[in-house]
Design goal:
The structure is a single chain. By secondary structure, the chain is an alpha+beta fold. The protein folds into two domains: 1-52, 2,3-Dihydroxybiphenyl 1,2-Dioxygenase, domain 1 (Roll); 60-140, Roll (2,3-Dihydroxybiphenyl 1,2-Dioxygenase, domain 1). It contains two helices and ten strands. The chain has helices spanning 16-26, 81-93; strands at 8-13, 30-34, 38-43, 46-52, 62-65, 68-71, 74-75, 98-105, 113-119, 125-131. The strands form three sheets. The chain has a four-stranded mixed sheet, with helices on one face. It has a four-stranded mixed sheet with strand order 7-10-9-8. It has a two-stranded antiparallel ribbon with strand order 5-6. The chain is globular and about 50 Å long.
Length: 140
């Protein structure tokens, strides 16, 4: 099986220092390169970059999914099942305010997955999820 390549994602923030604290202390990212206008983070092996752009950082629209208001614009990582549960516990311990509390979708069905949503200080929504059976990630 081929090793998964890391992805790259850039997103706007209104304050780089606030973003730096959030992504390192709350999410657990390590720091990469940076300038006065951007910071690279290592998010679970992927390169995400916060760009200083106060006018662009804002909450996105929401869509109704399973009776919950899911932010349309969001990003995150698909974690291993136990890793997701441990991460959810860590976020609770850090008093993260969830947009959508951690919960299990499609319980005991082929697409069973754990998901949670929260936002960074600039309003960028993040979703962290996990599949009980990782082979079902793209299953129809």
């Amino acid at each position: 099986m081929k090793t998964q390549q890391p992805f790259h994602l850039a997103f706007p923030v209104h304050d780089l220092e606030e973003a730096k604290l959030f992504y390192t202390k709350i999410i657990g990212c390590s720091l990469g390169r940076s300038s006065k206008k951007w910071i690279d983070f290592n998010m679970f092996g992927h390169q995400v970059v916060a760009h200083l752009s106060p006018d662009e950082s804002q909450r996105s629209n929401v869509a109704n999914v399973d009776g919950k208001k899911v932010p349309v614009r969001h990003f995150g990582i698909v974690l291993e099942w136990n890793q997701w549960h441990n991460f959810a516990d860590e976020l609770r311990e850090k008093d993260v305010k969830f947009l959508i509390e951690p919960y299990i979708r499609f319980k005991e069905k082929s697409g069973e997955q754990a998901t949670m949503f929260f936002s960074d200080p600039s309003g960028n929504a993040l979703e962290f999820k996990s599949f009980k059976n990782p082979d079902n990630l793209f299953k129809k």
